[in-house]
Design a protein that fits this description.
This is DUF4301 domain-containing protein. It comes from Maribacter ulvicola. Residues 5-511 form the DUF4301 domain. It holds the Pfam family DUF4301. This protein is of the alpha/beta class. It has a domain at 87-163. It is built from 15 helices and 20 strands. It has helices at residues 6-15, 19-31, 53-66, 87-95, 103-110, 113-120, 128-134, 142-154, 181-192, 210-228, 272-277, 298-328, 333-347, 360-371, 416-423, and strands at residues 37-41, 43-44, 47-49, 72-77, 172-173, 178-179, 194-195, 198-205, 231-238, 245-246, 264-265, 283-287, 375-382, 390-395, 401-406, 427-428, 432-436, 457-463, 466-472, 485-490. The strands form 5 sheets. Strands 2, 3, 4, 7, 8, 9, 12, 13, 16, 17 and 20 form an 11-stranded mixed beta sheet that branches. Helix 9 (181-192) crosses helix 10 (210-228), helix 9 (181-192) packs across helix 12 and helix 13 runs parallel beside helix 14 (360-371). The longest helix has 31 residues, at 298-328. 40% of the residues are buried. The model has no long low-confidence stretch (mean pLDDT 93).
Length: 512
């Protein structure tokens, strides 16, 4: 039994975490989180839809025809800090001295590919001129030039970009200005999430950066509005302290900081299901802050989003019709079979083997449960070796089969069959979702009821030189949406432009 002090209980109260939640975390550590059981990779024709050009045009036109009557929201997870993006540069500052060796000698000695790319592409970065204008003494030697450049870029008393949220860094250089991901999301939003001259965007950010985002909106908002003719309604939310998770020592007891307090850690992007649950709209587009294209690709990106939204609205229209019919309860065998067939073929729902032997009233009850769920349409790009969640048919602990987005950490790589299924998958998820969160009566679902709590992650960490175990909540587009109705659609690679490392900004997709 875990003994909690008065100080512990006050700490829990301040965070909004109940004692039961904390004990549940401890129980999860003790029991462990089982690996998922992959049945098959989702592929084109078996879990992933692929549309012809003509079909795409039809879906775009369908979405456009509905646009003026819809509440639309663009939801952007944007709390990522830039520090990880500059990891290679921080390491370089600690490992290189321009007075002791040339850059060429350093690169030969270390085989540091990121610094080689960074050095060779220096003048193509969107912040190049801004940094150079701040450097007082220009150097001819490349090693000194790169070292001074990075020092100015990241130094606490300089530009300090390592402290910035990723969404507020210059990403794209245009003729007369550099644009941040925040600004690019505004421009993009006008192309597919704007209706009746307005667009609603919600960013989940770190509380410490709220003022910085506000300043960026003041600076870029009026300019983008003038260019697009769209008025923007932008708001923000923070990851809630109540979604932090307990860390434990190797004996599964609460890990304590040096001051005796219990260590809690942020629960990962799965915590954002709480933030999403506080939003309400007919259609919600979800896309990460760092996945933005330069404007020459914006129309192709917007058309892809409209295809996904067209699929959503078409399937939802039918689902709503059937949900209303089921509420009348006076339906016969033919209609029951029609609804079951729609759920299987259109929403990828799978039924238990004993469904056919149930009474009509029991069948209706099952169909009601299956049809009355939030719907997500997930874009899938062809797997080109990038890290990310993949689309799979999965069997859960109750024996239910469903389509899920699965991370490699959830798969037992010691099981050769499971490892092969991962290796042979053809697509992966770039966090490109269009969601419907209301039922046919217009009431919003409580999204917290559709989370699979058994799809979190346990990871090993250290603090103050001591080992600990940390718990990540089921990911926002993984276990947090596990019980949604799910459709996967192939989308073009032009829609996937993440910036995980600063050198990704040198890719053609980020060069205007």
């Amino acid at each position: 039994m875990i003994e909690l002090t008065d100080k512990d209980l006050k700490q829990l109260e301040k965070k909004g975490i109940s004692k039961e939640q904390m004990l549940s975390h401890i129980n999860t550590f003790k029991e462990g989180i089982p690996f998922v059981k992959l049945e098959n990779a989702a592929v084109i024709g078996k879990g992933i839809l692929k549309f012809s050009d003509a079909e795409e045009k039809e879906l775009i036109a369908f979405y456009d025809s509905k646009l003026k009557d819809l509440d639309i929201l663009k939801f952007v997870p944007a709390s990522g800090a830039a520090s990880r993006m500059f990891k290679a540069l921080f390491s370089f500052l600690g490992a290189y001295s321009p007075s002791e060796e040339t850059l060429e000698a350093y690169l030969t000695r270390t085989n540091d590919k990121d610094i080689k790319k960074f050095s060779e592409g220096l003048e193509r970065f969107p912040f190049y001129q801004k940094v150079m204008d701040r450097i007082a003494v220009k150097s001819e030697a490349q090693g000194e030039k790169v070292f001074n450049f990075i020092s100015e870029l990241l130094g606490e008393n300089a530009l300090n970009y390592g402290f910035f949220p990723k969404g507020l860094l210059p990403f794209h250089k245009y003729e007369d200005s550099a644009a941040t991901p925040f600004e690019e999301h505004l421009k993009e939003g006008a192309l597919y999430a704007g209706a009746n001259g307005k667009a609603n965007l919600h960013f989940t950010i770190s509380e410490q950066h709220e003022e910085m985002f506000g300043e960026e909106f003041k600076a870029s908002g009026p300019k983008v509005s003038a260019d697009t003719g769209i008025t923007y309604n932008v708001d923000y939310s923070f990851q809630k302290p109540s979604t932090d998770t307990l860390a434990v020592d190797m004996d599964n007891k609460p890990f304590r900081n040096e001051d005796g307090s219990v260590l809690f850690r942020p629960g990962g992007h799965g915590a954002l299901i709480q933030n999403l649950n506080e939003q309400d709209a007919d259609v919600i587009f979800i896309k990460n802050i760092d996945n933005v294209a330069v404007m020459k690709d914006a129309k192709a990106v917007a058309n892809s989003k409209k295809v996904l939204a067209g699929v959503l609205l078409k399937e939802q229209e039918k689902a709503f019709e059937y949900a209303a019919l089921l509420d009348k309860e006076d339906i016969g065998d033919a209609q029951i079979e029609e609804i079951r067939s729609f759920l299987v073929t259109s929403l990828n729902v799978r039924f238990s083997d004993d469904f056919d032997s149930k009474s009509n009233s029991k069948k209706i009850s099952v169909l009601k449960d299956k049809v009355n769920r939030p719907i997500r349409i997930c874009g899938m790009v062809k797997n080109e070796g990038e890290p990310g969640g993949g689309p799979f048919w999965v069997t859960n602990g109750k024996g239910e089969v469903s389509l899920q987005i699965i991370e490699s950490a959830q798969i037992d790589m010691d099981d050769q069959q499971q490892a092969d299924l991962l290796k042979n998958s053809t697509h992966f998820n770039p966090v490109d979702l269009v969601c419907a969160v209301r039922n046919y009566k217009g009431e919003k679902y409580d999204l917290l009821k559709f989370v699979d709590e058994k799809q979190g992650f346990i990871t090993g960490k250290t603090k103050d030189g001591k080992e600990l175990k940390a718990l990540e909540l089921p990911g926002l587009w993984n276990g947090a949406m596990a019980f949604w109705n799910t459709i996967f659609v192939e989308v073009p690679l032009v829609t996937f432009n993440p910036v995980k490392s600063v050198v990704d900004l040198l890719k053609d997709s980020h060069q205007a």
